[in-house]
Amino acid sequence: MPAATRRSPKARVYRGTPRNLARLAAVLARGELVAVPTETVYGLAADALNPRACRSIFRAKGRPTADPLIVHIHAWRQLEQLAEPNDAARRLAKAFWPGPLTMVLPKKACVPAIVTSGLPSVAIRMPRHALFRRLLKQCERPLAAPSANPFGYVSPTTSAHVLAGLGQRISYILEGGAATIGLESTIVDLRNPAAPRLLRPGAITREQLEAVLGLPVEVVHGHAAPAQPRAQIAPGLLLRHYSPHTPVTLHERIAPGDYRNASADEAWLLLMRPTGRTSPHVYALDPRGDLRGVARHLFGKLRELDAAGYRRIHVELAHGGGLADAINDRLRRAAAKG
């Protein structure tokens, strides 16, 4: 019996040349999918005003339709075409757009129900990534784009991650280098501008939002159960998400005594490179423990350890608020039992 052969991905990775951007804009215009780089994570993009194209996103990812999509734009006029902005949205956009901030606002009729999971609100972001912005401008259409990975798995921060996860399901990937932030965008609910709510922490912190708005921002702690059929207000709110296949155990702090005599089939992931003698199964997210480096490398390292065959991954939580809240949000969801 012949040995099993591994199928080659059908997806092709395209460099960001003017010719390729024109080609991929045409692909999106005819209702197909393109994986795109952003400063947060890679996204799987489709024409946000084409319901058939957006349904293809859910099929390719295996994503439940109760989990709405984020719509990406390149100009303020597009926001006014898609949603009902208020003064709070204008102030946050002036401060943080283009950037890693998503705002939930009442939607207009042109936004298909499949994008918003049937809800009367839409999540919108103006990304900062220069190449993605060039593609958005070339398309002249808003693009719906959740993370470009199988639903529930660790988000992709490089084109290689996209190829590994969706290479058999999609045909086009735009190469834009490694994501510089590495965590999904902050999501703030502005449907009631007098009572803003932080739905998902990210690189734009609660403290930054409050400083611009001059209002307290409520942090939403409730998470939907994995099988809950009711539509969510925004993506990334499930109890278990961003999860490697290998079980994850979280620790407030990891000390040398925790891993020195530990089993070789368990990995230990620290925020900062330890000093002195250590174990070959100990890894660090940033040499100095800088939280920006921790965030940037988190998903890539979880993928690496997941592929290494460990029985369990132990991870140290971040401390200090701000970006630490976003890092710990992703870690707690990665470690949650499904």
Description:
Helix content is 31%, strand content 18%. It has eleven helices and 15 strands. The two termini are 38 Å apart. Mean pLDDT is 93; it is low at 1-5 and 224-229.
Keyphrases for this structure?
338 residues, alpha/beta, DHBP synthase, 2 domains, nine-stranded mixed sheet, four-stranded parallel sheet, 15 strands, disordered N terminus
In short:
The chain has 338 residues and is an alpha/beta fold. It has eleven helices and 15 strands.
User: Which value, in Å, is the CA radius of gyration?
Assistant: 20 Å
Strand ordering within the main sheet = 2-3-7-4-6-5-9-10-11
The helical percent reads 25-40%
- Summarize the main sheet: 9 strands, mixed
Share of residues in strands: 15-25%
**Uncertain runs:** 1-5, 224-229
Mind telling me the CATH superfamily name of the largest domain? DHBP synthase
Mean pLDDT reading: 93
Number of domains: 2
What sort of overall outline do the alpha carbons produce when their principal axes are compared?
globular
Number of helices: 11
Q: What pattern of helices and strands is seen along the backbone?
A: EHEEHEHHEHEHEHEEEHEEHEEHEH
- Measured distance between first and last alpha carbons: 38 Å
